[in-house]
Specification:
Elements: H1 6-17, E1 30-31, E2 35-39, H2 46-55, E3 59-60, H3 66-78, E4 87-92, E5 101-102, E6 107-108, E7 126-129, E8 143-146, E9 153-159
Parallel strand pairs: 4-9
Antiparallel strand pairs: 1-2, 2-9, 3-9, 4-5, 4-7, 5-6, 7-8
Bound molecules: calcium ion (2 copies).
Length: 171
């Protein structure tokens, strides 16, 4: 349903290599306040999802605050019927058990939105957002640690340059 333009991605790579920054989003990406987001239709393990985002010069989504979390919930809701499972975020505790970091920055999570009784640990090392499975009006948008080999949807993120001119050019 959501497509991104390969040509646009290549232009983006070229621009970022030149040290320039984006103020608009590639085709098929959804524009937020500070980032572009790509919610996948396909299902993938956390590792594959992370690699897919890297391939698009992006990373799995890093959720910085409640506003961003709320935006993502709204974005998923808009295309709700296209999805069947939950969405991978960039977080995991693969390096140090119980020490959750954002994989792309290796920074600890300053904002967290765990569901009650989560993270439950054990063999569950990757962070998903509840949107479909285990999701109801109270838990939608909350986070759960889950086996990294589970097949989920995922959200990729590209940061927009901050302090860009106050106009939006979409596409
Ligand atoms: Ca973010
Ligand atoms: Ca869990």
């Amino acid at each position: 349903m959501i497509m991104y333009s390969q040509r646009w991605i290549h232009s983006y790579i070229l621009l970022t290599n030149l040290g320039l920054y984006l103020s608009c989003c590639p085709d098929g990406w959804v524009k937020g306040s500070y980032s572009c987001y790509y919610p996948s239709n396909e299902l993938a393990t956390w590792m594959v999802a992370s690699a897919k985002c890297s391939h698009m010069t992006s990373h799995l989504v890093v959720v910085d605050n409640a506003d961003e979390n709320l935006f993502l919930v709204g974005m998923i809701k808009e295309y709700f019927r296209a999805y069947v499972r939950n969405f991978w975020l960039d977080g995991n505790d693969l390096e140090r058990k119980g020490h959750y970091v954002w994989s792309s920055t290796r920074q600890p999570m300053s904002y967290r939105n765990w569901n009650s009784l989560e993270p439950s640990g054990g063999s569950e090392d990757c962070v998903e957002m509840l949107t479909h499975e285990f999701a109801d009006i109270h838990t939608r948008g909350k986070w759960n640690d889950r086996s990294c080999s589970h097949a989920n949807h995922y959200i990729c993120e590209i940061s927009l340059s901050r302090g860009s001119p106050p106009f939006d050019v979409i596409g």
